[in-house]
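Aim 2 progress update. The chain analyzed this quarter is reproduced below.
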Amino acid sequence: MLDFLPAAVRGVIASLLLALNTLLLCSFLFCVALFKVLPFALTQRFSHWLMNHTHEAWISNNKAWMNLIGRTRWHLSGLEGLDYQHSYLVTSNHQSWVDILVLQYVLNRRIRPLKFFLKQELIWVPVIGVAWWALDFPFMKRYSKAYLDKHPEKKGKDLETTRKTCAKFRNNPVGIFNFAEGTRFTPGKHAQQQSPFRHLLKPKAGGIAFVLDAMGEQLESIVNVTIHYPAGRPGFWDLLCGNVKDVVVHFQELQIPASFIGKNYEQDGEYRLQFQGWINQLWQDKDALLEQMHREYPAK
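Predicted C-alpha coordinates:
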Protein backbone atom coordinates (compact mmCIF):
# COMPACT_ATOMS: atom_id res chain seq x y z
CA MET A 1 0.00 0.00 0.00
CA LEU A 2 1.28 3.46 -0.96
CA ASP A 3 -1.35 5.49 0.89
CA PHE A 4 1.42 7.00 3.06
CA LEU A 5 2.70 8.93 0.02
CA PRO A 6 1.34 12.35 -1.00
CA ALA A 7 -1.67 12.11 -3.32
CA ALA A 8 0.14 13.76 -6.25
CA VAL A 9 2.98 11.22 -6.03
CA ARG A 10 0.49 8.35 -5.99
CA GLY A 11 -1.20 9.88 -9.03
CA VAL A 12 2.06 10.00 -11.00
CA ILE A 13 2.90 6.39 -10.04
CA ALA A 14 -0.58 5.17 -11.04
CA SER A 15 -0.40 7.08 -14.34
CA LEU A 16 2.93 5.46 -15.19
CA LEU A 17 1.66 2.00 -14.27
CA LEU A 18 -1.49 2.48 -16.39
CA ALA A 19 0.59 3.68 -19.36
CA LEU A 20 3.07 0.80 -19.02
CA ASN A 21 0.26 -1.75 -18.71
CA THR A 22 -1.45 -0.39 -21.82
CA LEU A 23 1.77 -0.16 -23.86
CA LEU A 24 2.94 -3.69 -23.07
CA LEU A 25 -0.40 -5.47 -23.50
CA CYS A 26 -1.37 -3.52 -26.63
CA SER A 27 1.97 -4.45 -28.19
CA PHE A 28 1.31 -8.10 -27.37
CA LEU A 29 -2.26 -7.77 -28.66
CA PHE A 30 -1.11 -6.49 -32.04
CA CYS A 31 1.24 -9.47 -32.37
CA VAL A 32 -1.59 -11.88 -31.59
CA ALA A 33 -3.81 -10.10 -34.13
CA LEU A 34 -1.61 -11.57 -36.87
CA PHE A 35 -3.14 -14.99 -36.09
CA LYS A 36 -6.64 -13.57 -36.42
CA VAL A 37 -6.27 -12.84 -40.14
CA LEU A 38 -5.20 -16.41 -40.93
CA PRO A 39 -8.07 -18.33 -42.59
CA PHE A 40 -7.90 -21.32 -40.24
CA ALA A 41 -10.51 -22.13 -37.60
CA LEU A 42 -7.89 -23.34 -35.12
CA THR A 43 -5.76 -20.18 -35.28
CA GLN A 44 -8.85 -17.97 -35.06
CA ARG A 45 -10.12 -19.82 -31.97
CA PHE A 46 -6.66 -19.57 -30.42
CA SER A 47 -6.38 -15.84 -31.17
CA HIS A 48 -9.84 -15.20 -29.71
CA TRP A 49 -8.95 -17.08 -26.52
CA LEU A 50 -5.61 -15.28 -26.18
CA MET A 51 -7.05 -11.82 -26.87
CA ASN A 52 -9.84 -12.36 -24.37
CA HIS A 53 -7.33 -13.26 -21.68
CA THR A 54 -5.08 -10.34 -22.68
CA HIS A 55 -8.06 -8.02 -22.18
CA GLU A 56 -8.70 -9.54 -18.76
CA ALA A 57 -5.00 -9.29 -17.86
CA TRP A 58 -5.04 -5.56 -18.68
CA ILE A 59 -8.00 -5.11 -16.32
CA SER A 60 -6.36 -7.25 -13.62
CA ASN A 61 -3.20 -5.13 -13.79
CA ASN A 62 -5.30 -1.99 -13.43
CA LYS A 63 -6.96 -3.53 -10.38
CA ALA A 64 -3.50 -4.15 -8.94
CA TRP A 65 -2.38 -0.51 -9.14
CA MET A 66 -5.79 0.66 -7.87
CA ASN A 67 -5.30 -1.55 -4.79
CA LEU A 68 -1.69 -0.41 -4.47
CA ILE A 69 -2.28 3.34 -4.36
CA GLY A 70 -5.44 3.49 -2.23
CA ARG A 71 -7.75 1.77 0.24
CA THR A 72 -11.12 1.89 -1.50
CA ARG A 73 -13.99 0.27 0.40
CA TRP A 74 -16.25 -1.65 -1.98
CA HIS A 75 -19.93 -2.07 -1.07
CA LEU A 76 -21.28 -4.60 -3.60
CA SER A 77 -24.60 -6.40 -3.96
CA GLY A 78 -26.46 -8.47 -6.56
CA LEU A 79 -23.50 -10.27 -8.13
CA GLU A 80 -24.52 -13.80 -7.15
CA GLY A 81 -26.27 -14.92 -10.34
CA LEU A 82 -23.75 -13.79 -12.95
CA ASP A 83 -22.10 -16.52 -15.02
CA TYR A 84 -18.86 -16.29 -17.00
CA GLN A 85 -20.30 -18.60 -19.67
CA HIS A 86 -23.24 -16.34 -20.56
CA SER A 87 -23.64 -13.19 -22.65
CA TYR A 88 -25.06 -10.04 -21.04
CA LEU A 89 -26.09 -6.52 -21.91
CA VAL A 90 -24.79 -4.26 -19.13
CA THR A 91 -26.09 -0.73 -18.53
CA SER A 92 -25.39 1.75 -15.76
CA ASN A 93 -25.92 5.31 -14.60
CA HIS A 94 -23.00 7.52 -15.62
CA GLN A 95 -21.39 10.04 -13.27
CA SER A 96 -17.68 9.94 -14.06
CA TRP A 97 -15.03 8.31 -16.26
CA VAL A 98 -14.22 6.40 -13.08
CA ASP A 99 -17.44 4.41 -13.69
CA ILE A 100 -15.76 2.41 -16.47
CA LEU A 101 -12.86 1.27 -14.31
CA VAL A 102 -15.25 0.54 -11.44
CA LEU A 103 -17.29 -1.77 -13.67
CA GLN A 104 -14.17 -3.46 -15.03
CA TYR A 105 -12.77 -3.86 -11.49
CA VAL A 106 -15.91 -5.56 -10.18
CA LEU A 107 -16.96 -7.59 -13.23
CA ASN A 108 -13.55 -8.84 -14.39
CA ARG A 109 -13.69 -12.63 -14.78
CA ARG A 110 -17.25 -12.70 -13.39
CA ILE A 111 -18.51 -12.15 -16.93
CA ARG A 112 -16.64 -11.68 -20.20
CA PRO A 113 -14.77 -8.36 -20.70
CA LEU A 114 -17.10 -5.49 -21.51
CA LYS A 115 -17.33 -4.32 -25.12
CA PHE A 116 -19.44 -1.63 -26.74
CA PHE A 117 -20.91 -1.13 -30.20
CA LEU A 118 -18.86 1.14 -32.48
CA LYS A 119 -19.66 2.86 -35.73
CA GLN A 120 -18.05 0.99 -38.60
CA GLU A 121 -15.99 4.04 -39.60
CA LEU A 122 -14.10 3.98 -36.27
CA ILE A 123 -12.20 0.88 -37.31
CA TRP A 124 -9.93 3.26 -39.26
CA VAL A 125 -8.89 5.26 -36.16
CA PRO A 126 -5.09 4.87 -35.91
CA VAL A 127 -3.87 2.23 -33.42
CA ILE A 128 -7.02 2.09 -31.26
CA GLY A 129 -9.21 1.04 -34.21
CA VAL A 130 -6.99 -2.02 -34.70
CA ALA A 131 -7.17 -2.75 -30.96
CA TRP A 132 -10.99 -2.62 -31.03
CA TRP A 133 -11.02 -4.90 -34.08
CA ALA A 134 -8.55 -7.32 -32.50
CA LEU A 135 -10.63 -7.50 -29.31
CA ASP A 136 -13.80 -8.26 -31.33
CA PHE A 137 -15.65 -5.09 -30.42
CA PRO A 138 -18.83 -5.23 -32.53
CA PHE A 139 -18.94 -2.67 -35.33
CA MET A 140 -22.32 -1.49 -36.53
CA LYS A 141 -23.40 -0.29 -39.93
CA ARG A 142 -25.74 2.72 -39.64
CA TYR A 143 -27.36 4.77 -42.40
CA SER A 144 -28.37 8.38 -41.81
CA LYS A 145 -31.99 9.48 -42.11
CA ALA A 146 -31.05 11.64 -45.11
CA TYR A 147 -29.46 8.64 -46.84
CA LEU A 148 -32.50 6.45 -46.17
CA ASP A 149 -34.80 9.13 -47.56
CA LYS A 150 -32.87 8.92 -50.82
CA HIS A 151 -32.47 5.13 -50.69
CA PRO A 152 -35.58 3.68 -48.99
CA GLU A 153 -34.63 0.21 -50.20
CA LYS A 154 -31.78 0.28 -47.63
CA LYS A 155 -34.13 0.48 -44.63
CA GLY A 156 -33.38 -2.38 -42.26
CA LYS A 157 -30.14 -3.31 -44.06
CA ASP A 158 -27.95 -1.68 -41.40
CA LEU A 159 -29.53 -3.79 -38.66
CA GLU A 160 -29.28 -6.91 -40.83
CA THR A 161 -25.55 -6.25 -41.39
CA THR A 162 -24.96 -5.70 -37.67
CA ARG A 163 -26.78 -8.92 -36.80
CA LYS A 164 -24.45 -10.80 -39.13
CA THR A 165 -21.37 -9.30 -37.47
CA CYS A 166 -22.75 -10.35 -34.06
CA ALA A 167 -23.28 -13.96 -35.15
CA LYS A 168 -19.74 -14.78 -33.95
CA PHE A 169 -20.91 -14.25 -30.36
CA ARG A 170 -23.26 -17.23 -30.53
CA ASN A 171 -20.41 -19.54 -29.53
CA ASN A 172 -18.31 -16.90 -27.75
CA PRO A 173 -20.04 -15.27 -24.76
CA VAL A 174 -19.70 -11.51 -24.55
CA GLY A 175 -20.49 -8.60 -22.26
CA ILE A 176 -21.99 -5.70 -24.23
CA PHE A 177 -22.01 -2.36 -22.45
CA ASN A 178 -24.07 0.81 -22.92
CA PHE A 179 -24.47 3.99 -20.83
CA ALA A 180 -28.19 4.67 -21.33
CA GLU A 181 -27.84 8.35 -20.38
CA GLY A 182 -25.29 8.82 -23.14
CA THR A 183 -23.21 11.31 -21.14
CA ARG A 184 -21.98 11.96 -17.61
CA PHE A 185 -24.34 13.44 -15.04
CA THR A 186 -23.68 17.06 -14.07
CA PRO A 187 -26.02 19.55 -12.36
CA GLY A 188 -25.88 21.71 -15.49
CA LYS A 189 -26.94 18.91 -17.83
CA HIS A 190 -29.60 17.85 -15.33
CA ALA A 191 -31.09 21.35 -15.29
CA GLN A 192 -30.80 21.78 -19.07
CA GLN A 193 -32.69 18.53 -19.67
CA GLN A 194 -35.29 19.34 -17.00
CA SER A 195 -34.81 15.71 -16.00
CA PRO A 196 -37.72 14.25 -14.02
CA PHE A 197 -35.21 12.25 -11.96
CA ARG A 198 -33.35 13.56 -8.94
CA HIS A 199 -30.04 11.74 -9.45
CA LEU A 200 -30.15 10.82 -13.15
CA LEU A 201 -30.30 12.27 -16.63
CA LYS A 202 -32.99 11.13 -19.03
CA PRO A 203 -32.20 7.69 -20.52
CA LYS A 204 -31.77 7.35 -24.27
CA ALA A 205 -33.58 4.15 -25.15
CA GLY A 206 -32.23 3.86 -28.69
CA GLY A 207 -28.76 2.55 -27.78
CA ILE A 208 -30.01 -0.32 -25.64
CA ALA A 209 -32.79 -1.08 -28.12
CA PHE A 210 -30.26 -1.33 -30.95
CA VAL A 211 -28.25 -3.94 -29.01
CA LEU A 212 -31.41 -5.96 -28.32
CA ASP A 213 -32.51 -5.63 -31.94
CA ALA A 214 -29.13 -6.88 -33.15
CA MET A 215 -28.48 -9.74 -30.74
CA GLY A 216 -31.30 -10.04 -28.21
CA GLU A 217 -31.70 -13.79 -28.70
CA GLN A 218 -28.00 -14.27 -27.89
CA LEU A 219 -28.16 -12.49 -24.53
CA GLU A 220 -28.84 -14.22 -21.23
CA SER A 221 -30.22 -11.08 -19.57
CA ILE A 222 -29.71 -7.37 -18.92
CA VAL A 223 -27.49 -6.41 -15.99
CA ASN A 224 -28.77 -3.11 -14.60
CA VAL A 225 -25.99 -1.44 -12.56
CA THR A 226 -26.40 1.44 -10.11
CA ILE A 227 -23.23 3.23 -8.93
CA HIS A 228 -22.99 5.67 -6.01
CA TYR A 229 -19.96 7.56 -4.69
CA PRO A 230 -20.72 8.69 -1.11
CA ALA A 231 -18.04 11.42 -1.21
CA GLY A 232 -19.37 12.84 -4.49
CA ARG A 233 -18.54 12.27 -8.15
CA PRO A 234 -14.77 11.60 -8.47
CA GLY A 235 -12.61 12.67 -11.36
CA PHE A 236 -10.15 10.33 -13.04
CA TRP A 237 -7.26 12.06 -11.27
CA ASP A 238 -8.96 11.30 -7.94
CA LEU A 239 -8.87 7.62 -8.86
CA LEU A 240 -5.21 7.79 -9.88
CA CYS A 241 -4.36 9.49 -6.58
CA GLY A 242 -6.21 6.85 -4.55
CA ASN A 243 -8.74 9.37 -3.27
CA VAL A 244 -11.87 7.33 -4.01
CA LYS A 245 -12.58 6.00 -0.53
CA ASP A 246 -15.99 4.35 -0.96
CA VAL A 247 -17.81 2.88 -3.96
CA VAL A 248 -21.34 1.48 -3.72
CA VAL A 249 -22.48 -0.73 -6.62
CA HIS A 250 -25.71 -2.70 -6.97
CA PHE A 251 -26.29 -5.22 -9.77
CA GLN A 252 -29.77 -6.26 -10.85
CA GLU A 253 -30.21 -9.02 -13.42
CA LEU A 254 -33.29 -8.49 -15.59
CA GLN A 255 -34.83 -10.98 -17.96
CA ILE A 256 -35.33 -9.58 -21.45
CA PRO A 257 -39.07 -9.44 -22.26
CA ALA A 258 -39.85 -11.88 -25.07
CA SER A 259 -41.81 -9.14 -26.86
CA PHE A 260 -38.55 -7.18 -27.32
CA ILE A 261 -36.76 -9.91 -29.27
CA GLY A 262 -36.44 -9.65 -33.04
CA LYS A 263 -37.94 -6.15 -33.29
CA ASN A 264 -36.74 -3.02 -35.09
CA TYR A 265 -36.77 0.03 -32.80
CA GLU A 266 -36.42 2.55 -35.61
CA GLN A 267 -39.19 1.17 -37.82
CA ASP A 268 -41.74 -0.17 -35.32
CA GLY A 269 -43.48 2.79 -33.66
CA GLU A 270 -45.59 0.72 -31.25
CA TYR A 271 -42.55 -1.22 -30.05
CA ARG A 272 -40.58 2.03 -29.72
CA LEU A 273 -43.16 3.55 -27.36
CA GLN A 274 -43.38 0.31 -25.36
CA PHE A 275 -39.60 0.13 -25.01
CA GLN A 276 -39.26 3.78 -24.01
CA GLY A 277 -41.85 3.26 -21.29
CA TRP A 278 -39.96 0.22 -20.03
CA ILE A 279 -36.64 2.11 -19.87
CA ASN A 280 -38.25 5.09 -18.13
CA GLN A 281 -39.70 2.81 -15.46
CA LEU A 282 -36.28 1.23 -15.03
CA TRP A 283 -34.82 4.71 -14.49
CA GLN A 284 -37.51 5.64 -11.98
CA ASP A 285 -36.60 2.56 -9.94
CA LYS A 286 -32.87 3.38 -10.27
CA ASP A 287 -33.48 6.95 -9.09
CA ALA A 288 -35.31 5.63 -6.01
CA LEU A 289 -32.44 3.22 -5.32
CA LEU A 290 -29.89 6.04 -5.58
CA GLU A 291 -31.93 8.07 -3.10
CA GLN A 292 -31.81 5.10 -0.73
CA MET A 293 -28.03 4.78 -1.27
CA HIS A 294 -27.56 8.46 -0.39
CA ARG A 295 -29.33 7.82 2.93
CA GLU A 296 -27.50 4.56 3.74
CA TYR A 297 -24.06 5.78 2.62
CA PRO A 298 -23.93 9.52 3.39
CA ALA A 299 -20.95 11.70 2.59
CA LYS A 300 -18.17 11.41 5.17
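The chain has a mean pLDDT of 89. The chain is about 45% helix and 15% strand. These observations will guide the mutagenesis experiments scheduled for the next reporting period.
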